[in-house]
């Protein structure tokens, strides 16, 4: 469902270190496991180490909240189920959409909602999730001076529709995404590697692309010694 | 090359001599590509009919490295991307992480950050001006520009110990207090600089040869620029008045008075004028800022170990090259889950093909110079 | 029999000695002109220039020459080696050949040909062969393109420069170098004041003829098409460079002879003498100039950081003082000696000033693009030069028939007319360029 990392799921360890600002005294292990929105009793003076003075009251740190403004309503009205979820994280609007509708939603955003600048197009890899890639589009509207983030989930071998025809700047951005993550953009005129040499194997920004392993393997293969890393 | 229209209305092109187009390679090593950039030009005689930029020679995997460093440990790496304007990179990153943490730098830190960033903008534009003029054949402005830039680098060195890759800011504020005499140094520089920039204008702006080499060269319309995602002085010279310092003010920019220069035509000459004016406006901001640096702490209370709550943020600043954005995803640990840098030079370089169509070979060098790219940022 | 042979060769002795001196000394002079260029460039760029090799970099040219002689001589594969060898030799030969008709002062001239200017122009034109052959022999099509561009540029601007010269020749009435200077002496005025537009055309044309900035696109490093010199290394390249600087000196000498009064001092017609003597006031100028330089060097001596530089400054001061003395002594010598020495000084000073102007222009202006360069030559300079010849000639006729008293009156009128023509041509060219751009490029 939602890619909210505060829920249990792919996010590994520290049990919700939610506090910002003041220094966090070390919490005992079992506390505060994955409880959504509200931080679970952050300042539990009884459980904290006795000699320390009680920690200052913690404000709630920035966290994602659901979003339902007019823009989201219009999107939902137009695309229905393709709009999976809308959140507001650190005061920035994020709309999770279905990857198959990416091109249509993009075109709608550019033409009707006037998000004419595609600021950035990138991906994030959550390998433990079934649809491991988050495709992120950051949009900006000059008229409304507003930013919007579109997010879509894509599986490893799933082709994502390319938005090159909507925003030509996506050309190189999608090539870089392909280069670094291996996400195939269907409809892209010339999807080839951009930053790495053409014959490179592997996609570096995936979480299972381990620099250390690559280094030791290369050194063992080419120099015949054990890498000192 | 003749373009004839046959009866069906489509265009048939023939070449007069029956010659094929040739591919000319400006290899990664070239005095004018400002770094390791390879440009393949398809030429028809003297005219460029197509081009392809091949990048990646300076790719260092900065985004992958970020996933294996803590937030503070990653900060020096961002300087090395746009190494000509390291302070801006640091500002963008520190502010992005501060947004992620929900912290805010204290007022004194914000003002000092503004001053240093504006000085860095002037230094970056000076490098651009010197090298761009050198490519077009003016051999002298580069030395004058570097002489002025030397003063700025001396200020940086006195402040944080480094000239180029400064790592001047910390997450939450500043590490170092301003040194004694900081305001005087900045003030003296700003006062001298007004006259110097007039000197550069005298040498170039009205010069017939300069105008002839830059006017009408590399035209990019505003619609094309927005469609191609171009930001920064290139977009402003195409006519769109947009600056993140005014649109989403950060640091202390909302306290100061400054103009956003734009250009009418979007050619190389306009980009030149826009950047010259930006230098003047940066000087204006610096002068306003040093009048009144608030006292107080320079570092917010963010603690030694930074563990931002899980979530993500996109924060961008107006770097000298364009919109420099950081998209940081946190999973609650001390190391970022993903750091994505939105590099202005990378995206602006895409517009090169559009700008170079129809230009002469001798203009290609001018067009590369006018986009103002730094390969460290293009390739990361 | 021996006296007969001696008698036969006597007329040739002095010219041969002069020729040997020129060919022997000139390469060294060219090296020092390069050093001068680097120092002037540094001065305009707020830095010092060569300072390490010898005090104030004075031994730099020797080091450069030594290095170039020792460099590996690379010949491209499949290059035509005979042409590859001949091309720079041809360039240098033609450049140095022009010195045959050039006077350096009234006393030092290898051959006073009665068509001196024509000879020099013709020989300079032959130098273009050296460039084209060099580009061809390099077996690289970029070199060939660069060479052809260079040749096209040289030919166009030589036309313009030649036409500019003609307007000066109208006043001179002769093609012989000596006679031209004599004509300026007779009229009492340098021809630059009579035909300033002609001088301007010649100045611009000569910059383009010698491939100097702002017309140096064919040889600029930051451009894509490499110049004809690319495949040459070591001493062959040095020969091309020598040819370029020799050409610079040749055009400077022509301009000096024709427009700047040759070996005449400023105001040659002003004969006011020092009271009580027969020495003319203005003839004391060289001595005064040298004294000023000597005093300035003395003043700068304590500021030198290193001892050897102090010594060099003192030597410079001493040398200038000595030259001042020589100039002053020459005033009392018999006429031929006096004219010879002072004439040589003024000639060299003017050539030096013209070369300095070349350097100045190089470091101030950006480079013209090749099509803009050709447009400037053909659409502006050549029409201007043609009209100039006609207007100046008409002015001369009018002046003689109407007997205007002051010799320069017609010059002022013709200059004003020419300025109007120049403005018109520039305006017309811009209009043409605008229509061409509007139509989507040529």
* H/E series of chain C: HHHHHHHHHHHHHH
Count of structural domains of chain C: 3
Secondary structure: number of strands of chain A: 8
Largest interface: A-B, 55 and 53 residues
Q: Which outline of chain C best applies?
A: globular
Mean pLDDT of chain A: 75
Query: Multimeric state of these chains?
Result: heterotrimer
**Tell me about the biggest sheet of chain C?**
none
Which word captures the global form of chain A?
Answer: elongated
Which parts of chain A are unreliable, with pLDDT below 50 for 5 consecutive residues or more? Answer: 1-50
Q: What is the topology, as strand order, of the major beta sheet of chain A? A: 1-2-3-6-5-4
Strand content of chain A: 15-25%
- SS summary, helix count of chain A: 4
Radius of gyration of chain A: 22 Å
End-to-end distance of chain A: 39 Å
Helix content of chain C: over 70%
Q: Work out the radius of gyration of chain C.
A: 24 Å
Order of helices and strands of chain A: EHEEHEEEEHEH
Derived from helix and strand composition plus strand pairing, the structural class of chain A reads alpha/beta
CA distance, first residue to last residue of chain C: 72 Å
Description:
The complex is a heterotrimer of chains A (229), B (380) and C (442). With 229 residues, chain A is α/β, with parallel strands linked by helices. Chain A is built from 4 helices and 8 strands. Chain A has helices spanning 70-79, 102-111, 170-181, 211-222; strands spanning 65-66, 83-89, 92-97, 117-125, 133-141, 146-154, 159-161, 184-186. Chain A has a 6-stranded mixed beta sheet with strand order 1-2-3-6-5-4. A two-stranded parallel ribbon of chain A has the order 7-8. By secondary structure, chain B is α+β, with helices and mostly antiparallel strands. Chain B has one domain (62-379): Cytochrome-c3 Hydrogenase, chain B, CATH 1.10.645.10. In chain B, β8 (311-319) and β9 (322-330) form a beta hairpin. Chain B is globular. Chain C is mainly alpha-helical and 442 residues long. In chain C, α3 (81-97) packs antiparallel against α4 (116-137), α5 runs antiparallel to α8 and α8 runs antiparallel to α9 (234-258). At the A-B interface, β4 and α3 of A face α3, β8, β9, β10 and α12 of B.
């Amino acid at each position: 469902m939602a890619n909210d990392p505060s829920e249990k799921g792919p996010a590994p360890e520290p049990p919700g270190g939610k506090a910002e600002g003041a220094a966090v005294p070390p919490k005992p292990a079992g506390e505060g496991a994955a409880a959504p929105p509200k931080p679970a009793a952050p300042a539990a003076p009884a459980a904290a180490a006795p000699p320390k003075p009680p920690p200052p009251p913690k404000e709630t740190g920035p966290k994602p909240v659901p979003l339902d403004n007019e823009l989201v309503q219009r999107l939902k009205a137009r695309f229905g189920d393709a709009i999976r979820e809308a959140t507001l994280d650190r005061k920035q609007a994020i709309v999770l959409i279905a990857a198959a509708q990416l091109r249509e939603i993009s075109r709608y955003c550019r033409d009707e909602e006037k998000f004419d600048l595609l600021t950035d197009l990138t991906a994030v890899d959550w390998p433990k999730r079934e649809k491991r890639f988050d495709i992120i589009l950051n949009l900006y509207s000059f008229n409304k001076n507003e930013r919007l983030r579109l997010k879509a989930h894509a599986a490893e071998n799933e082709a994502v529709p390319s938005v090159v025809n909507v925003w030509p700047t996506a050309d190189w951005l999608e090539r870089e995404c392909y280069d670094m993550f291996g996400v195939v953009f269907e409809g892209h005129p010339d999807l080839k590697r951009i930053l790495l040499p053409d014959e490179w194997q592997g996609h570096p920004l995936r979480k299972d692309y381990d620099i250390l392993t690559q280094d030791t393997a290369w050194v063992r293969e080419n120099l015949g010694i054990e890498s000192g890393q | 090359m003749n373009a004839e229209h046959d009866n069906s209305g489509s265009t048939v092109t023939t070449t007069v001599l029956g010659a094929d187009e040739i591919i000319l390679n400006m290899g990664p090593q070239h005095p004018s590509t400002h770094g390791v950039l390879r440009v393949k030009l398809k030429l028809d005689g003297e005219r460029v009919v197509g081009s392809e930029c091949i990048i990646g020679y300076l790719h260092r995997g900065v985004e992958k490295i970020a996933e294996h460093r803590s937030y503070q440990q990653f900060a020096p790496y961002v300087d090395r991307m746009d190494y000509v304007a390291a302070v801006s990179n640091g500002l963008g990153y520190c502010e992005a992480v501060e947004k992620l943490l929900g912290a805010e730098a204290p007022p004194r830190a914000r003002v000092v950050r503004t001053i240093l960033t504006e000085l860095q903008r002037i230094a970056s534009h000076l490098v651009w001006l010197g090298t761009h003029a050198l490519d077009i054949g003016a051999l002298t402005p580069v030395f004058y520009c570097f002489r002025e830039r030397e003063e700025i680098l001396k200020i940086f060195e006195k402040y944080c110990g480094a000239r180029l890759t400064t790592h001047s800011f910390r997450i939450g504020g500043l590490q170092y207090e301003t040194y004694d005499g900081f305001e005087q140094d900045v003030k003296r520089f700003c006062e001298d600089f007004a006259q110097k920039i007039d000197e550069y204008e005298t040498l170039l702006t009205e010069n017939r040869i300069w105008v002839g080499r830059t006017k009408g060269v590399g035209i990019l319309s505003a619609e094309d620029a927005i469609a191609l995602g171009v930001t920064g002085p290139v977009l402003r010279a195409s006519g769109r008045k947009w600056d993140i310092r005014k649109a989403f003010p950060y640091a202390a920019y909302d306290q100061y008075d400054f103009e956003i220069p734009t250009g009418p035509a979007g050619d190389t000459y306009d980009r030149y004028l826009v950047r010259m004016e930006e230098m003047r406006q940066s000087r204006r901001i610096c002068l306003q800022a040093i009048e009144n640096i608030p006292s107080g702490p320079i570092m917010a209370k963010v603690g030694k170990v930074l563990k931002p709550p899980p979530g993500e943020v996109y924060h961008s600043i107006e770097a000298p090259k364009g919109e420099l954005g950081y998209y940081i995803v946190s999973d609650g640990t001390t190391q970022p889950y993903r750091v994505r840098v939105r590099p202005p030079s990378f995206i602006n370089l895409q517009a090169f093909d559009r700008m170079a169509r129809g230009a002469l070979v001798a203009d290609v060098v001018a067009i590369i110079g006018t986009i103002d790219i730094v390969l460290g940022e293009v390739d990361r | 029999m021996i006296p007969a042979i001696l008698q036969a060769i006597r007329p040739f002795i002095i010219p041969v000695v002069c020729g040997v001196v020129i060919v022997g000394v000139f390469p060294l002079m060219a090296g020092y002109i390069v050093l001068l260029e680097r120092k002037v460039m540094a001065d305009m760029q707020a830095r010092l220039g060569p300072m390490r090799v010898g005090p104030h970099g004075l031994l730099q040219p020797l080091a450069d020459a030594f290095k170039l002689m020792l460099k590996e001589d690379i010949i491209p594969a499949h290059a035509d080696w005979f042409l590859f060898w001949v091309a720079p030799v041809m360039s240098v030969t033609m450049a140095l050949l022009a010195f045959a008709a050039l006077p350096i002062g009234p006393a030092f001239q290898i051959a006073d040909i009665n068509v001196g200017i024509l000879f020099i122009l013709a020989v300079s034109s032959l130098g273009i062969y050296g460039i084209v052959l060099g580009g061809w022999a390099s077996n690289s099509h970029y070199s060939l393109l660069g060479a052809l561009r260079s040749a096209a540029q040289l030919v166009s601007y030589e036309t313009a420069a030649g036409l500019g010269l003609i307007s000066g020749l109208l006043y001179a009435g002769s093609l012989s170098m000596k006679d031209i200077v004599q004509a300026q002496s007779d009229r009492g005025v340098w021809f630059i004041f009579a035909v300033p537009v002609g001088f301007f055309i010649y100045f611009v044309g000569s910059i383009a003829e010698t491939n100097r900035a702002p017309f140096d696109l064919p040889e600029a490093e930051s451009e894509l098409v490499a110049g004809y010199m690319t495949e040459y290394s070591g001493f062959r390249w040095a020969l091309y460079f020598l040819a370029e600087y020799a050409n610079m000196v040749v055009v400077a000498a022509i301009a000096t002879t024709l427009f700047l009064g040759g070996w005449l001092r400023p105001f040659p017609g002003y004969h006011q003498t020092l009271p009580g003597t027969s020495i003319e006031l203005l003839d004391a100028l060289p001595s005064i100039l040298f004294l000023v330089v000597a005093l300035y060097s003395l003043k700068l001596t304590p500021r030198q950081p290193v001892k050897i530089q102090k010594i060099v400054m003192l030597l410079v001061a001493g040398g200038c003082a000595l030259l001042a003395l020589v100039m002053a002594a020459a005033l009392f010598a018999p006429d031929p000696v006096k004219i010879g020495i002072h004439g040589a000084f003024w000639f060299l000073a003017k050539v030096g000033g013209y070369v300095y102007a070349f350097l100045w222009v190089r470091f101030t202006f950006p480079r013209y693009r090749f099509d803009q360069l050709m447009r400037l030559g053909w659409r502006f300079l050549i029409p201007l030069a043609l009209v100039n010849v006609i207007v100046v000639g008409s002015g001369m006729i009018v002046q003689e028939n109407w007997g205007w008293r002051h010799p320069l009156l017609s010059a002022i009128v013709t200059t004003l007319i020419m300025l109007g023509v120049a403005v018109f041509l520039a305006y017309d060219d811009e209009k043409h360029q605008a229509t061409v751009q509007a139509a989507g490029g040529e």
